[in-house]
Design goal:
2 copies of one chain form a homodimer. The longest helix of chain A is centred in the C-terminal third of the chain and has 25 residues. Chain A starts with 5 loop residues before the first helix and ends in a 6-residue tail after the last helix. Chain A is mainly alpha-helical and about 140 residues long. Chain A contains 6 helices and 3 strands; from the N terminus they run ααβααββαα. Chain A has a single domain, classed as Winged helix-like DNA-binding domain superfamily/Winged helix DNA-binding domain (Arc Repressor Mutant, subunit A, Orthogonal Bundle). Chain A has a 3-stranded antiparallel beta sheet with strand order 1-3-2. In chain A, α1 crosses α5 and α5 packs across α6. At the A-B interface, α1, α5 and α6 of A face α1, α5 and α6 of B. Chain A binds a DNA duplex (30 and 30 nucleotides) through α4. Chains A, B: InterPro entries: HTH_MarR-typ, MarR/SlyA-like, WH-like_DNA-bd_sf, WH_DNA-bd_sf. Chains A, B: It comes from Intrasporangium calvum. Chains A, B: Pfam families: MarR_2.
DNA sequence: CCAATATAGTTCGATCGTAGGACTACTTCA
DNA sequence: TGAAGTAGTCCTACGATCGAACTATATTGG
C-alpha cells in the first residue's frame, strides 16, 4: 500500500461521510436534493442569509448560487424574502419542509462521529479533531463563519 | 465559532490542498486539465489501467470515465492501447506529456505537507496522519490500491 | 463445440453544476 | 444630485454525471 498524501486521506474519509449523510437523506425521502444543493443549504443561517454570502461560504459564483436556490425554491426547501436592511438584497430562508429534514442529516453525522471514535479510541479522535481545527486556521478562507 | 463536524473539517483542508495543487498545475501551463480529469489520471498505474478500474477508483460510472478519457486523449495526456489479456478491454496509459506534468503536482503536494507540519508541529502531524490512515480502514471502499 | 450468459467499453440523451459577461435595481458617498 | 459601487438575475456555454441501450469479445454449462 502506497503512502497516500494527507490531503487525499482526508478526502477519502470526508467523501465517505458525505455519501453516508446523503444516503441517509435519500432513505428518509429526500430524493430531490442534490449534494451541491445541500452544501448551499448548510450555509443558511436561522434568520436567512443573503445569496452572495451563501455563494461565498460554499465557494461558488453568485450565478451558481442563484441556480441552486432556484431549484431549491422550486422543490420547496427555501424561500426568498426581501431584506429589510437593503432593497437590493433578498434573504434566502429555510422553509418548514427543510427544517424538518435537517435532523436527519445531523443524526447521521453524529452516528458517523461515534463510529469513528469507536474505531480510533477517544484519545486519537481528540487528537484528530485538534489537528484539523488547527489546520483550518491556515486552510479555510472563510473562518469568520 | 461553531463546532464543525470532523468530516467537514477534513473537507475544508482537502479542498484547500486540491485547489493549491490544481493551481500549481495551471501556473505550470496545464491549463487544459480539469479537476475531474486529474482525479482520473491519479488512478492510472505505470503499465496502464482498464477504464472500468479507473471508474471504480474514482467512484464514477463507466460512461463518465469514457467521457473523461476522451478529453484527456484529445489533449494528449493519455492513450488507449489494446489489452493483450482481453480482447474486449483496452488499457489507458499516460503519455510522455502527462509523465512530464506529474512532478509538478507531487512537488506542490510535498510543499503543502511541509507547511502543515510546520503549523501543527511534528508530533501532531504524526498523530493526524496516524488517525487518518486508521480511518481509511473503515471509510475507503477501494483499499486494495 | 456451441448456445446462453456475462463483461468491457461505447454511444445517446438528459440533467446538474459551474461560471464569464452583461444587465437591472438599489444604495452609498462625495 | 450624480457617479460609483453592490445584490441579484439572465443569457450562454461547457464540463461532469449517469441511465439505458448497444457492440464486440469472453466465459461457461451442456
Amino acid at each position: 500500500m502506497r503512502d497516500l498524501p494527507t490531503s487525499l486521506l482526508m478526502f477519502i474519509a470526508s467523501r465517505y461521510a458525505q455519501n453516508r449523510i446523503f444516503e441517509a437523506g435519500r432513505e428518509a425521502g429526500l430524493t430531490d436534493v442534490t449534494f451541491a444543493q445541500s452544501r448551499l443549504v448548510a450555509g443558511i443561517d436561522p434568520d436567512g442569509t443573503r445569496l452572495s454570502v451563501l455563494a461565498e461560504r460554499a465557494q461558488i459564483a453568485k450565478q451558481t448560487a442563484t441556480a441552486l436556490v432556484d431549484k431549491l425554491e422550486r422543490a420547496g426547501y427555501v424561500e426568498r424574502v426581501p431584506d429589510p436592511a437593503d432593497g437590493r438584497a433578498r434573504l434566502v430562508r429555510l422553509t418548514a419542509r427543510a427544517e424538518a429534514a435537517l435532523p436527519i442529516a445531523r443524526a447521521e453525522e453524529t452516528r458517523i462521529e461515534r463510529e469513528w471514535e469507536a474505531h480510533l479510541g477517544t484519545e486519537r479522535m481528540g487528537q484528530l479533531r485538534e489537528a484539523l481545527v488547527m489546520l483550518r486556521e491556515i486552510t479555510d478562507p472563510y473562518l469568520e463563519r
